[in-house]
Amino acid sequence: MELNEVRKRYLDYMRDRGHSVLASAPLVPREDSTTLFTGSGMQPLVPYLLGKEHPKGTRLANAQKCFRANDIDEVGDNRHTTFFEMLGNWSLGSYFKKEQIEQCFLFLTDPNSGLGLNPERLYVSVFAGDKLLNIPRDEESAEVWRQLFTSAGVTAETAHIGSKENGDRRGIKNGERIFFYDADENWWSRSGSPDTMPVGEPGGPDTEVFYDFGDSAADPAYADMKPHPASDSGRFVEIGNSVFMQHIRTKNGFTQLPKKNVDFGGGLERLVAATEDTADIFRIDAFASCISALAERSGIAYDTRPRPFRIVADHLRAAMFIAADGVSPSNTDQGYVLRRLVRSAVYNVQYGLGIADLPLTVLVPSMVSMYADRYPEIAEERVVQTIGDEEERFITTLQKGTKVFDAIAKKGAITGEEMFTLQSTYGFPKELTISLAREKHVSVSSDGYVSAMHRHRESSRQASERKFKGGLADASDMSVKYHTATHLLHQALRDVLGNTVEQRGSNITPERLRFDFSYDRKLTDEEKKQVETVVNDKIQEGLEVRCMDMPLEEARRLGAIGTFEYGDTVRVYCIGEYSKEFCGGPHVGNTADLGSFRITKEESVAAGIRRIKAVLE
């Protein structure tokens, strides 16, 4: 089926079942400064899932424009895109597991009102429970799935998998179709897994549907892995996920919510790919005209070198939708992402495919025709103008960058820092530096590239944060408390993990703190507990918080830490004698004002960079 047909079938199907069909929310959130883009169908509806009444009722559905900037570097394989549409339906206390799973299965398999997928190609996952937290296994969802598969003549044995890693070792056995995974795979809350949820936070199990594209779709890079639904093998692709928000965290564990909600999301492009039984999402009609034009002008067959085709098609489509939402290319925030997408597309047209005379604007109209009926803003003249202007700027920048490259290359070697400077200052992509250096027989070292990139990101983050008082999202009492807690966390991490820990970024809102730091591995549970204990001990000690303005050298002699230096004279905040750190403020007057500190999540952000999220209670 074509993309527009699948979308229409889904929305008609849900409308026939009593759902109010909503328009897509903007791609750039209008009332949420904590994120650059709308990244899921659920995101605009979170207030209603948490209890607010929706004016359209208790059964809702839509097709939501989404963009995930974290996937920019992943694009190039057969399944990652940055922009996508999420088909979603929600029950706000109207129906629950049985009705949701039944309508999902029927939409996927019914050839008349749905997609007509072969149920033999579908596999599902459900929540395995958490014995330590006394959260039961989701037998109800598993039984509904078993009955549905059986009624369709499909054998549906259950299997307890647990972790994804265990599944990679175990694989699947004949007849198995319903798989129990732990919370990392089949649980949803805003705070992550059940053990990280604060008191009062709702959450619940989910059940995911996977399409089996067959052994031929498996990625050779995972040849040592035994494919199973939640694996990264490429054989199984998730096409739908139903979240059942039924639990709430209390001081004594978990209890049932009085009103239970359902949130379903299904990737439109992946569903289209399933109807065509192609594991390559770039073979669907949404990308066909762009890839065909590129193949014709380049003389290169898509199958022989698919990566640059995929990058151009994805990045151009994403750039069009971001521009249609009113964003202009710039060096910050959404504008920086738009600039990066356009320039990457230009680079891959000219250097990836060797086409010197094909402006991106020539490729835009056919994509516009695909989406204009549903999203008329994509057809506005400013979309073409925005992309064309940025393409011209980049070509000019490339010409200047080539001169700088030639000057650097004369010495016979290019360092990682020089390679990053060519990219950040002159818009010269890393891949182009490497390619030209190879042609000129000049050596290139990647040493220093990553560290230069992190310094640049930190500098940009600081510049962005200084738009607000003291680097906070606002100057509310809670944000100020979290700011002080961040200083305690920074020093506690150095106490527990060593003085190699350095701040690499932070984001503070009235609801939580987020702290990025340099460290090369995941923290153990014991280490996280130690950090929590140190912070809470310092809070209990009631340490006075004071600030001093002094010469930079004096601050260094005092032992002040921090990546950020504000000139010859700096401001240092001292928390008792425990923490001394460069900072612009503001802070509380005493740590006793903070309450108690709890880490909710610890994860990787990039190579050698970890992230902690924490709350004050």
Task: Please describe what this structure looks like.
The protein folds into three domains: 3-281, Bira Bifunctional Protein, Domain 2 (BirA Bifunctional Protein, domain 2, 2-Layer Sandwich), CATH 3.30.930.10; 284-447; 469-616, Threonyl-tRNA Synthetase, Chain A, domain 2. Helices cover 39% and strands 22% of the residues. It contains 18 helices and 19 strands. The strands form four sheets. Strands 1, 2, 3, 4, 5, 6, 7, 8, 9 and 10 form a ten-stranded mixed β-sheet that branches. It has a four-stranded antiparallel β-sheet with strand order 13-14-19-18. Strands 15-16-17 form a three-stranded antiparallel β-sheet. Strand 18 (597-606) and strand 19 (609-616) form a beta hairpin.
What does the oligomeric state look like here? single chain
What number is the mean pLDDT? 89
User: Can you tell me the residue ranges where pLDDT is under 50 for at least 5 consecutive residues?
Assistant: 464-470
Total of DSSP H or I helical runs spanning 4+ residues: 18
Q: What's the number of structural domains?
A: 3
Please state the CA-atom Rg, rounded to the nearest Å.
26 Å
> Helix- and strand-based class?
alpha+beta
Quick rundown:
With 617 residues, this protein is an alpha+beta fold. It has helices spanning 3-16, 46-49, 97-109, 139-151, 164-170, 183-186, 268-275, 285-298, 306-324, 333-352, 360-371, 381-409, 416-426, 430-439, 449-465, 477-497, 525-540, 552-558; strands spanning 20-22, 59-67, 83-92, 122-127, 157-162, 176-181, 187-189, 202-212, 236-250, 253-267, 413-414, 443-444, 503-508, 513-518, 545-551, 569-575, 579-582, 597-606, 609-616.
